[in-house]
Amino acid sequence: MKLKDSIRTALRGLTHAKVRSLLTMLGIVIGIASVIVLMSIGKSAERLILNQVQSIGSNLVFIVPGATKGSRFASPPSVQGVIIKTLIKTDLEALRREPTVERAAPEVRGQAKIVFENNDTTVTYTGTSEEFFTIRNFEVKRGNPFTNSDVDSFNRVALLGPEIARTLFGERDPINKTIRLKGISFRVVGVLEEKGLGPFGVDQDNLVIIPISIAQKQLLGINYYNVITVQASDSYNVEFTQSRVTAILRQNHRITDPSKDDFTIRTQEDALAILGNITSILKIFLTSIAFISLIVGGIGIMNIMLVSVVERTKEIGLRKAVGATNRDILQQFLIEAILLTVTGGIVGIFIGSLVDVLAYLVLVNVLTSGWVFALPLSALTLAVTVATATGIIFGIYPARKASLKNPIDSLRYE
User: Fold this and answer.
1) Which of 44, 215, 343, 412 is the most exposed place for a label (fewest CB within 10 A)?
2) DSSP state of 184
3) Spatial separation of the C-alpha atoms in residues 258 and 262, rounded to whole Å
4) Cβ(381)–Cβ(293) under 8 Å?
5) CB atoms within 10 A of CB 234
6) CA–CA separation, 367 and 187 (whole Å)
7) Domain limits of the chain?
8) What does the pLDDT read at residue 337?
9) Handedness of CA 197, 266, 230, 158 (dihedral sign)
10) Cα–Cα distance measured from residue 135 to residue 330, given in angstroms and rounded to the nearest whole number
11) How many other C-beta atoms are found inside a 10 Å radius of the C-beta of residue 2?
């Protein structure tokens, strides 16, 4: 029998049992749609995290006090809350003199209650220098950033994240208003542009940024830094700048044995590597769940095809009696299984893609999320391949069983 005749016969068999065919396809539709949606979620999460890391600036090197033990991805003690005082002003001055360093900004952080009239909330504040705004891509929506002159003069000025500004001032203009942070008065000189969540879930819209001199001396009572952020010069690659920063700090701290470093240096590439491992595991996990749906759908196809073989025993016997070979019967039932899964796969791709688009619109417009739309071509290709493979794998056994039936016994079957 020619292939086109087998396809025509298979289509006729499927259309004669429309409800059964639709129910059989349902499992594949759900499975393929799940593959599309879950792979899209994984890819979107990966792009969102990548955008968040890139949004904090470019060519960055982060220096934190304390050495990292064990894995290169382990956190230094200072990140875990241990107070380490090894990064000081002389380190910052040496880094700013280094030709491979374009800019360097120190940071100290703390938490305190911020008050304006009858409104108050607890915030995270950052003390830093003028370079911070350029290095970390913080744009000022209203007002102006403070300068290093404000830092040197111990001026009590502050910039507010947009969320903090709304909490304290509502619709009023915060510029030149006086707020109190940890009992100390500050004049608001600017409101930052919205940035949303940063890497590792840091809310960049709930920050208060003040001169580092005030933060160190009057709020925290310290003379060291929690972190120094360095921006590499465009004339040098980040790896070379990282090596120069390491050499400068070892010289400043009189360290001759690298195993005794009292600081940790990280780059954006390190952050991306850590987050890449997380998103890869997430994608594998989500895709595995989707494939379970496909396996269930495939088993459903096999069961329905086996029932179909039993119901059409006389038909099989009659076809064999008029000359159909085992290969013709095998081909017919196998084509039926493949048509079911491929059709279900196409419908599943459409539904999965539609769900992706609707979810994106909801997340962006309703929840004002920074979610990134992603419908990877690999997901569509995989869906079609898996749909076809499912039809072949789960259709072979019923088709073979049909082809091996004895024509005489089949004609006698009631």
Assistant:
1) 412
2) E
3) 9
4) no
5) 9
6) 33
7) 3-53+273-412, 85-261
8) 75
9) positive
10) 67
11) 9
Both tokens assigned to 344: 């279900």
> CA 290, CA 300: separation in Å to the nearest integer?
16
- For 157, the 3-state DSSP assignment is strand
**Identity of the residue numbered 184:** I
Burial class (CB in 10 A: 0-12, 13-18, 19+), 358: exposed
Q: How far apart are CA 90 and CA 245, in angstroms?
A: 13
- State residue 9's pLDDT score: 59
Residues of the chain with pLDDT under 50: 1, 200, 413
User: Pairing mode, if any, of strands 207-211 and 119-128?
Assistant: parallel
Please measure the distance between the N-terminal and C-terminal CA atoms of the chain and give it in whole angstroms. 27
Side chain identity, residue 277: N
The DSSP annotation for 296-343 comes to HHHHHHHHHHHHHHHHTHHHHHHHHHTT--HHHHHHHHHHHHHHHHHH
d(CA 338, CA 343): 8
Phi, psi angles (nearest 5°) of residue 2: -70, 155
For Cα atoms 148, 149, 152, give the angle at the middle one, nearest 5 degrees: 85
What pLDDT score does 58 carry?
64
CA distances from 271 to 21, 49, 199 (A): 50, 10, 9
Whole-number pLDDT of residue 256: 87
CA distance 216 to 225: 9
